[in-house]
Specification:
Elements lengths: L1 H15 L3 E9 L2 E8 H4 L2 H16 L4 H25 L4 H11 L7 E5 L2 H22 L29 H9 L13
Antiparallel strand pairs: 1-2, 1-3
Helix pairs in contact: 1-3, 1-6, 3-4, 3-6, 4-6
């Protein structure tokens, strides 16, 4: 449930920020000029937080104990941040005003007839799904199995196996020299 909720929420939030969030018109010499802005033009925060949430979602299954708690909290915070950023950007018209100023050539021009779409709220729903995934991971994450530590090293130095130098093989002589051994001296193995 957590993985599905988080992945679906991140996908919805990312796709929603690429859609038109607002439209309006700018007054130019030839009449009204239609303007549209995408969510990523208004704010880049929801898309960035959705990517952070997606990364945290993957990481929550790879870490153990306190690491899982921290990553779960990051997942929940990225979902909450996505919701807040999209709700704040839902009624923002500054990007439309910038487009109107560029289209008319007048820096004081503003957009008229501003309308907003439902896409910011769809992105907020995606953020809510990421938040839900984070809360589920915080609540039940300690009960989930962790990745195996089978292939992890314990930090102890491993003994090196030294092969005897074969004088008939020049590469063995060079390897012995690289290790700092004297290939012409007695055999380190004692033979």
């Amino acid at each position: 449930m957590t993985l599905l909720s988080g992945a679906l929420g991140a996908a919805v939030a990312l796709l929603s920020t690429r859609q038109n969030w607002a439209q309006g018109t700018a007054t130019v010499a030839g009449g009204a000029f239609p303007l549209t802005v995408r969510g990523s033009d208004i704010t880049g925060v929801p898309a960035a937080l959705a990517i952070v949430g997606l990364a945290a979602l993957v990481a929550v299954f790879a870490v153990r104990r306190s690491g899982r708690l921290l990553v779960s909290a990051l997942l929940a915070l990225s979902g909450a941040g996505t919701v807040v950023a999209t709700v704040l950007g839902a009624s923002d018209s500054s990007a439309l005003d910038e487009r109107a100023a560029a289209a008319s050539g007048n820096t004081a021009a503003t957009a008229a007839g501003i309308g907003h779409t439902v896409w910011p709220y769809v992105a907020a729903a995606g953020g809510a799904l990421i938040l839900l995934a984070g809360l589920l991971a915080l609540r039940y994450g300690r009960l989930w199995p962790a990745m195996s530590g089978r292939y992890e090293r314990d930090g102890r130095p491993r003994p090196r196996k030294v092969k005897p130098v074969d004088p008939d093989r020049p590469e063995d002589i060079w390897k012995a020299l690289d290790r700092g051994e004297d290939p012409t001296g007695p055999d380190p193995a004692g033979t």
